[in-house]
Write a structure and sequence with these properties.
Blueprint: H1 15-21, E1 30-31, E2 35-42, H2 54-59, H3 61-73, E3 76-83, H4 88-95, E4 101-105, H5 106-118, E5 123-132, E6 138-142, E7 158-161, H6 166-177, E8 187-190, H7 193-202, E9 207-211, H8 214-220, E10 225-229, E11 237-244, H9 245-250, H10 252-271, H11 273-284, H12 288-295, E12 302-303, H13 309-324, H14 333-336, H15 340-345, E13 359-363, E14 370-372, H16 375-382, E15 387-393, E16 400-402, E17 407-411, E18 414-418, H17 421-429, E19 435-437, H18 439-445
Parallel strand pairs: 2-3, 2-4, 7-8, 7-9
Antiparallel strand pairs: 1-2, 4-11, 5-11, 5-12, 6-9, 6-10, 13-14, 13-15, 15-16, 17-18, 17-19
């Protein structure tokens, strides 16, 4: 398999000169007359883009679709996959005419639109990969044992995030709701996710606000505790597919092939979630248990290529946040969103809307999971079992979390779980007689 490129570590503000300096291979993908090279940018570690990236690449569906096309038009197609840690370098490559298709989160998508217009290499949003209608894909975490319990405790503290990312947007909005000024009350540090994770471990950052799959990974490894669940904002967040406008116009058949392939990868993930999680884990080096937290049958993300109205509306709400940060001047969201290619490539395709998450148990040696209607039923099933991973939804936000990392509450014989301790304490304060218990005690006491 072609080796992946090393992730760039340049801050977002430095990527604009990079994009300006790069040359162009010309519109519609590079070609020597007989072979058309299509360059696709993706983020292997950002696992809500897997249906347009890691999983799609491993399945080979895009290459299959293009091979079928080659038999009709006599052109040979070559796909070049380029892997990055964030969406910013993908945007730099696209706006330089060096990349044709890319996938990234909602805030980076808006920057993609703004940079494309500014550099006269406009882009279009043509599909969604994974989404969460409440915003549960982003989380603020602290180191285990940290004295910080609420967002208000971050006042005067150093918080690592990736400026211009959806996780940064979550942090800014959450701090404001907590009565803090993001520009004055916290010391925000712009870092790549991996650098921020190291800073948290070293104690040079008091908290980390990041996107999937970093919060879940650090929690699974015992290196972080959730401080704030992004779903408390109750604002949709998602990842999507963007394409260079010139490429889409000159090679519509290639874009159609990509979108058909993405649809097939989405079907694969939804029908074989455990196998898909194992595949993504193998490709990325992430634990399969972490991949499944987000991409599983009850996972935090819902996968559906459709450009749903509520997701487009959320993009419009994101624009002012980026404008205030000085990252964009303005974005015409309606002009950026183009649903026509998906309707053309996959007519009539639709998936059911996301329902309420259920508890789920993955036993060692099993290639399937069991779902439960209540956290109590999950606790009973865990007793004495060889557990690979157990997942439980937050009692208020519905965000799925590792059962052994959740904060548990017993209330009159019923059990509830919360992503954060603040959420559990909020519940207990309003329900006399309820109490917070450790996961091990919950498993021991459930009856």
């Amino acid at each position: 398999m072609q080796s992946r490129r090393l992730a760039l570590t340049l801050p977002l503000v430095l990527l604009l000169p990079l994009a300006t300096a790069c040359g162009s291979d010309g519109a519609g993908g590079s070609t020597d007359g007989k072979t058309v090279t299509v360059t696709v940018g993706y983020q292997s570690k950002t696992i809500n883009t897997v249906t347009a990236g890691t999983l799609l690449r491993s399945l080979g569906y895009f290459e299959e679709e293009l091979a079928q096309r080659a038999g009709k038009d006599g052109v040979t197609y070559k796909v070049v996959w380029q892997d990055y840690a964030t969406g910013a370098p993908i945007t730099a490559q696209m706006t330089a005419g060096k990349m044709d298709i890319g996938s990234m989160g909602d805030f980076p998508l808006l920057i993609n639109a703004a940079r494309g217009k500014q550099l006269k290499e406009p882009t279009r949003l043509v599909a969604v990969t994974g989404y969460n209608l409440r915003g549960g894909l982003n989380t603020v975490v602290t180191a285990p044992g940290s004295p910080l319990r609420t967002l208000k405790d971050l006042k005067g503290r150093k918080v690592s995030t990736s400026v211009g990312s959806a996780a940064d947007g979550t942090l800014v909005r959450a701090l404001r709701r907590a009565g803090l000024d993001p520009a004055k009350d916290v010391r925000k540090v712009n870092q790549q996710p991996s650098v921020g994770a190291s800073a948290l471990a070293a104690g040079t950052a008091d908290a980390l606000s990041q996107f999937v799959a970093w919060p879940g990974l650090l929690a699974f490894q015992g290196r972080a505790t959730a401080l704030y669940d992004g779903a408390e904002l109750n604002l949709p967040t998602f990842h999507g597919v963007t394409v260079r406008e010139r490429f889409a116009k000159e090679r519509p058949e290639v874009l159609d092939a990509f979108l058909r392939a993405q649809r097939r990868a989405t079907d694969e993930l939804r029908t074989r979630p455990v196998a898909s999680a194992e595949s993504v884990a193998k490709e990325t080096g992430l634990p399969a248990e972490v991949v499944y937290l987000y991409n599983g049958a009850q996972g935090i993300a819902t996968f559906d290529p459709e450009l749903r109205p509520e997701l487009v509306a959320a993009l419009k709400e994101d624009v002012p946040v980026l404008k205030e940060a000085g990252l964009v001047k303005d974005v015409d969201v309606d002009a950026f969103v183009d649903a026509a290619p998906l309707r053309r490539a996959v007519p009539g395709a639709a998936y059911p809307r996301a329902g309420a998450a259920r508890s789920e148990l993955w036993l060692k040696g099993q290639d399937a999971t069991r779902a439960f209607d209540s956290p109590k039923a999950l606790l009973k099933a865990v007793k004495g079992a060889a557990v690979r991973a157990a997942y439980v939804p937050d009692a208020v936000t519905g965000t799925l979390w590792f059962a052994d990392r959740a904060v548990w509450v017993e209330d009159a014989g019923e059990w509830r779980a919360f992503v954060t301790r603040e959420g559990a304490e909020r519940y207990v304060s309003g329900h006399a007689g309820s109490r917070i218990l450790a996961y091990a005690d919950a498993v021991r006491l459930v009856s």
